[in-house]
Amino acid sequence: MSRTLIRGGLVITASDEIHADVLIEDGRITALAASGTPAAEAFTSADRTIDATGKYVVPGGVDAHTHMELPFGGTFASDTFETGTRAAAWGGTTTIVDFAVQSVGRSLREGLDAWHAKAEGNCAVDYAFHMIVSDVNAGTLKEMDLLVEEGVTSFKQFMAYPGVFYSDDGQILRAMQRSAGNGGLIMMHAENGIAIDVLVEQALARGETDPRHHGEVRKALLEAEATHRAIRLAQVAGAPLYVVHVSATEAVAELSRARDEGLNVFGETCPQYLFLSTDNLAEPDFEGAKYVCSTPLRPREHQAALWRGLRTNDLQVVSTDHCPFCFTGQKELGRGDFSRIPNGLPGVENRMDLLHQAVVDGHISRRRWIEIACATPARMFGLYPKKGTIAPGADADVVIYDPGAEQVISAGTHHMNVDYSAYEGMRVTGRVETVLSRGVPVLTGREYTGRAGHGVYTPRATCQYLT
Ligand code: URP
Ligand code: ZN
Ligand code: ZN
Ligand code: ZN
């Protein structure tokens, strides 16, 4: 049996903060005891002892929204499962939930098999899958039941991107009805893509081709309208709903209203909406392309509603929507036509640090940091308490975090396979120091000690967050 002991740190979970020693045996947490007590002194004969004095001991991050190798706009997201999960480890994230894609005319199974083939043997940390449903038909609906049984318990649909991932209201309602019966959770990309495509065409006809127009045509009202429609369709179906990458004040208001009505409606936002804005999209010399994602970055005024939503629990999760495209050769596909810029931002490595900065800045508490980044994503997507907490029985996915270290985020030092950082030059306080994945050190005092293939596929239970 291998035994690791973490001594003297401040253990932070979604519910508690306690100076405690943590005992790990064979990849699982087996005991915690308040530091200095006889119970903690009795933890002896470890193979490895980590001194965490002055540090935080937190659960490994759970990033419930990534797109490694996603095909989009004629190219592929630049992080593979190997490079993307290595970067995740560097950033203190020990589980990702990535999106397998059903292509139109193909089965869910074909899409899922393809994503397993991309990931298997390549991941540095554990991984699971959601399924993007692009083609709702009788066969797809039957397959949803089978996928839930085998641990793919959530399905993303798109009200945007007509002709690619788009589902109409009837297809959405059918999928929601199915998920109401089988325990699956529908995740919604809520933007009115039909209306947006009209505005895109009109903008381009006026010669408005720069990246900032991406933000102008993808209007906050069209996010709010779609959010409202998704909520009411889910209500009609009697199904829970999780709205991904919420960015607009008006969309948060729709979620808040539905939650006040007692509906099982949940919302996710992402660091880019909390820390970046349309100012970035307006950067000159086509640099704004680095910030093109959908939903789009909003004027800075929207950030207050997102922070408030995170505090009131009208928003429950912060994921990255990590979907990197290099500026050179990929974002550049949209020079002269913003609608051809591949959509997505890198961030899987930055999320835990950016949210710690939110603690430093006073937006959220330390426990709320762990709740929105670790515990709730694990519960929302059926991984709890194996993932997302520090407790006996949980996987020993543990981060030793130095809350006082200063760092400057930069593409020059990050580990994501992308040629820019969306947060270039940003100073943050706090840094991941050591990361254990199922007890195995994958980052040891800022030295990478992981390997491709350590991470394993992790089937999921159904949503554990329903009221
Ligand atoms: O711009 C984004 N968000 N790209 C990834 C695909 C999606 O819609 O999540
Ligand atoms: Zn989306
Ligand atoms: Zn409320
Ligand atoms: Zn996404």
What would you say about this model in short?
One of its GO terms (cellular component) is cytosol. The protein is an alpha/beta fold and 467 residues long.
Write up what this structure looks like.
The chain is an alpha/beta fold. The chain folds into 2 domains: 3-58 and 391-443, Urease, subunit C, domain 1 (Roll); 60-380, TIM Barrel. Helices cover 31% and strands 23% of the residues. The strands form 3 sheets. Strands 1, 2, 3, 4, 5, 16, 17 and 18 form an 8-stranded mixed sheet that branches. Helix 5 (169-182) crosses helix 8. The structure holds N-(aminocarbonyl)-beta-alanine (URP) and zinc ion (3 copies). One zinc ion binds at residues 256, 259-260, 312, 314.
Keywords:
467 residues; metal ion binding; 8-stranded mixed β-sheet; alpha/beta; TIM Barrel; binds N-(aminocarbonyl)-beta-alanine; Hydantoinase/dihydroPyrase; binds zinc ion; 14 helices; 2 domains; Urease, subunit C, domain 1; 18 strands; 8-stranded parallel β-sheet; metal-binding
List strands and helices in order, with pairings:
Layout: E1 3-12, E2 17-25, E3 28-34, H1 38-41, E4 48-51, E5 56-59, E6 61-66, E7 71-72, E8 75-76, H2 81-90, E9 93-101, H3 108-119, E10 126-132, H4 138-149, E11 154-158, H5 169-182, E12 185-189, H6 193-205, H7 212-217, H8 220-237, E13 241-243, H9 249-260, E14 265-269, H10 271-275, H11 278-281, H12 303-312, E15 317-318, H13 351-360, H14 366-380, E16 398-408, E17 427-437, E18 440-443
Parallel strand pairs: 1-4, 1-5, 6-9, 9-10, 10-11, 11-12, 12-13, 13-14, 14-15
Antiparallel strand pairs: 1-2, 2-3, 5-16, 7-8, 16-17, 17-18
Helix pairs in contact: 4-5, 5-8, 8-9
The structure holds N-(aminocarbonyl)-beta-alanine and zinc ion (ZN) (3 copies).
One zinc ion is lined by residues 65, 67, 321, 323.
